[in-house]
Specification:
The chain is α/β, with parallel strands linked by helices. Helix content is about 45%, strand content about 15%. It has one domain: NAD(P)-binding Rossmann-like Domain (Rossmann fold). A 7-stranded parallel sheet has the order 3-2-1-4-5-6-7, with helices on both faces. Helix 3 packs parallel to helix 4.
């Protein structure tokens, strides 16, 4: 049998690149999207397909899915990863920043699901993982756009999981805590029970598990990968 195919967005660095490497290591063919040319180099390294574009662009997502199907004729898994939206005080964030965040964090997942779900239905199944944030459950005042829209992403994840479970299509989300790809704010490291931020590879291994047959009965979940940072239920 041919190796399964996985799409990973925002894949040139950080969590996205770690997911691409982990999925390739597990034998998946990877189709990668990111804005910069580094994604093309990573795709070559992994023997995959690279597309330059933004996860916030509907046209770029269409190109990504089209190129993947043209190359391999199927899509078995999607990792919807994205960058970081604007920060600011809650009521000082302008409308434009909210709209940009909507495209980046929420509509990216909706649009990819709209494009890929019919493909998975024809194939008899597949799996999505949306890379979210602990801010979806514990809103952060300096990050109102991320907090609000990642919470919305959690709701979409559950809605899609309910709607398409009978078709063998699963959708879950991972909620990373602080990750070493970005500077951890002063005082935040001390709040983490494990005493450190995550390596991106640790997030990637959880993503790969949720995409695998080992997680075949897991759908609609938002799984914290935060070193124990959030203590609420």
């Amino acid at each position: 049998m041919e190796s399964p195919v996985a799409i990973v967005t925002a894949a040139s660095a950080g969590i996205g690149a770690a997911c691409a490497r982990e999925l390739a290591r597990r034998g998946r063919r990877v189709s990668l999207l990111a804005r910069g040319p580094a994604v093309l180099e990573l795709a070559r390294e992994l023997g995959g397909l690279g597309t330059q574009g933004s996860v916030a662009s509907a046209d770029d997502l269409q190109r990504l899915v089209g190129a993947t199907l043209a190359a391999w004729g199927r899509i078995d898994a999607v990792v919807c990863n994205a960058g970081h939206p604007a920060k600011g005080d809650l009521l000082d964030v302008p409308d434009a920043a909210w709209h940009e965040g909507l495209d980046l964090l929420f509509l990216s997942a909706v649009r990819l699901a709209r494009l890929v779900t019919p493909v998975m239905e024809r194939q008899g199944g597949g799996a999505f993982v949306n890379v979210s944030s602990f801010a979806a459950e514990e809103p952060s005042q300096p990050r109102p756009v991320s907090s609000a829209l990642r919470a919305a992403l959690g709701s979409f994840t559950k809605l899609h999981a309910d709607r398409y479970a009978a078709a063998g299509i699963r959708m879950n989300a991972v909620l990373p805590g602080w990750v070493e790809t970005h500077e951890v704010p002063v005082g935040e490291r001390a709040r983490i029970p494990m005493g450190r931020a995550a390596d991106p590879a640790e997030i990637a291994r959880v993503v790969a598990f949720l995409l695998s047959s080992e997680a075949s009965y897991v759908t609609g979940a938002s799984l914290r990968v935060d070193g124990g940072l959030l203590r609420g239920s």
